[in-house]
Amino acid sequence: MTWLLLAGAILSEVTASLSLKAALTHPALYVLVVAGYLASFSLLAVVLRRGMTLGVAYGVWGASGVVLTALLSTLLFAEPLTALMGLGIVLVAAGVMVVELGSQRAHAEEESGAPSSSSASSAPSATAPGPAAALATATSEIPVVDPHQEGPR
Fold first, then answer.
1. Hey, is 152 helix, strand or coil?
2. CB 40 within 8 A of CB 12
3. To bridge 29 with a disulfide, which of 16, 23, 41, 123 should be the other Cys (CB 3.0-4.6 Å)?
4. Could you state, in chain order, the average pLDDT of each consecutive group of 10 residues for the chain (153 residues)?
């Protein structure tokens, strides 16, 4: 059921985005724009309340919206779709699949009690400096440039 609600959020957002383009010549469609975005955000909130993680829900929602809007704008508004844009769409879809697979793996590890690789790597180590030390080291190597002098100080 949660995935169906997310699909509804995606379709509402795509409808609103496409209506935004069409509303440029038909201003009455701004009503559909507002209704579509309200429905989309409302459904996305319900999906989050039902327990889907934000990274997965927003990733799938955003990426699917981009892909569908790009494809449908080609069909409805005769907008160009180049090979490079097609590659981008494939990469976006692949990225969403990787996020979803990572989420499934994290849930499986939580259920089995095994530590996930992200929690194991984020644990403090006696040999590795903490995040503050790493940030201080990284920022100390950034040259400071005085706009009145040439080159770094």
1. strand
2. yes
3. 23
4. 96 97 95 97 97 89 92 94 92 86 83 61 42 42 51 50
